[in-house]
Amino acid sequence: MQGNFIMLQKDDLKQVVSELVEELVGKKSQPDLTSEESDEYYTRDQVCERLHITYTTLWRMQKEGTIIVHKLGGRNLYSKREITSLVKSKVQRSGGSDLNV
Question: What secondary structure letter does DSSP report for 38?
């Protein structure tokens, strides 16, 4: 097996890994959404409130593919357009008398 190898002491390796983790996780702040972007997405709380469901139900709907989650900066966001479309399709199927999603 050919390749380039670097020899590190245990303490040196710990230091390198610590620095990488700090750089990748600790120092990165989550990007703030612009006002235009925030107008296009719901947070998890907003979706649950809008659909009158629990976090568990939202999670189940994500797993089933009923609701698509968009990950942005470590946050779970949901397209307002997709949620509105989901609500409209449920209202049409139920004849408008039941809003259960």
Answer: H
The contacts of residue 14 (CB under 8 Å, 6+ apart) are: none
- In the chain, what is the greatest distance between 2 CA atoms, to the nearest angstrom? 70
Q: Are 34 and 78 in contact (CB under 8 A)?
A: no
> In 1-101, at which residue ranges do the beta strands (DSSP E only) sit?
41-42, 70-72, 75-79
Query: What is d(CA 60, CA 84) in angstroms, rounded to the nearest whole number?
Result: 18
Q: Using one digit for the tens of pLDDT, what is the confidence trace for 48-97?
A: 999 999 999 999 999 999 999 998 888 899 999 999 998 888 777 766 54
Rg (CA), the chain: 22
The model's pTM is 0.55
Residue pointed to by tokens 């797993």: 63
CB 54 within 8 A of CB 23: no
**Residue 2 structure tokens:** 């050919």
In terms of C-beta density within 10 A (0-12 exposed, 13-18 middle, 19 or more buried), how is residue 14 classed? exposed
